Each structure stands twice: as C-alpha cells, then as structure tokens.
Amino acid sequence: MVGRLGRLWYEHRVVVVVVVIVLLAAAGLVIASVFSGEDKEASAVDNALVQAQRQTTKGDYDEAYSKLKDVENEAVSKTEKVTLYSELSAAAGNAGKLDEAISYLEKRHQLDASTINLDAEVLGGYYERKGDTAAALQQYKLALAYYESLPQGDIGTQVTVTGLKGRIAELEGVQQ
Q1: Which of 21, 76, 94, 123 has its Cα between 20 and 30 A from that of 141?
Q2: At 39, is the pLDDT very low, low, confident or very high (cuts 50, 70, 90)?
Q3: Do the Cβ atoms of 171 and 142 come closer than 8 Å?
C-alpha cells in the first residue's frame, strides 16, 4: 500500500501541490475580502476623492474642491481625515483658495504631526503665492532640513534639495 501511495505521490505531486496552493489562495482571498470590507460600497469620502481626481484632471479645480468639501464632515477615521485634509488642501490650492489650503494642512498636522515635514514644501508654496515671504522661507527651510535628513542616494531627493536651496536663496535675496 505504501509503495502504491508513494508512486501516486511521485507521479502526481505537482498537481497536488498546485491544487493545495489554489485552495489556500482562495481561502486567503475570502478571508481578506471579509476583513477588508470589499463587499461594502465605497464610502462617500472615497467616491468624492475619485470624483475630485477626475475634475482635477479636467482642470475644473473649483468643482474638485466642491466635491471634497461636500464630504468633509463624513470622514470617520483619523486616516480618512488626514487623507481628506491633504486632498482638500491641494484642491483649494489649485482653485486659488490659499487661506483654505493652508487651513486644511494645519488641520492635517493637528491630527498627524508626522505630516508637518512632508507638507512643508507645499505649505511654503502657498505662503509664497500669498506674498508672505517670511512664512514661505520658514516652511522651505523646514522642508530642506527634512529632505537633507533623508538618504541622498535618491535622485528625486537630490533634485528637491537643490531646488529648495535655490528657492531659499532667491527668496532671501528678495527679502533683503
């Protein structure tokens, strides 16, 4: 009997292994879908984010901002709020509503302080567009310190550092 089973295993082991892998993968997908809520409809915030992205692609920044603004109070989790505030800031900035863009980044920073350095360059741009050179410089210097603290092997980081240094030098020249 063992000889026969051994021979069957040897002859069909690839098929058995593939079947086991497929069954385990299917079970994993079922479990993942239960815990991720894939069967649920997308939230109003998720739908608004998609719609706003479409509007931004079309260049309709006011409509993108409006779509996001409509669902501002529907964000439930901290993560959802942090993401929504970032997108609201970008949409407001694109629509020329700089005070609102700044306000949304400040709300984002209150919820998640780790975003302060990530947003400093953008915030500097908003202040610069408003004509507040001192605030722009402060944010650009914060961004520069952050990017200089990162590993410098990445070409994108190097380009950002070079750009920030140039922008800071230019604004410092204007300020004097």
Answers
A1: 94
A2: very low
A3: no
Residue 72 per-residue DSSP state = G
Per the domain annotation, does 158 fall within a domain? yes
Q: Are 144 and 106 in contact (CB under 8 A)?
A: no
Kindly give, in sequence order, each residue whose CB lies less than 8 Å from that of residue 10, ignoring residues fewer than 6 positions away: none
Domain containing 153 equals 82-175
Nearest CA-CA partner of 53 in 40, 61, 144: 61
Instruction: Give mean pLDDT, residues 46-54.
Output: 83
CATH number for position 140: 1.25.40.10
- Summarised one tens digit per residue, pLDDT across range 100-140 is 999 999 999 999 999 999 999 999 999 999 999 999 999 99
User: What's the token pair of residue 27?
Assistant: 């079970």
35 and 86 share a domain? no
CA distance 76 to 174: 44
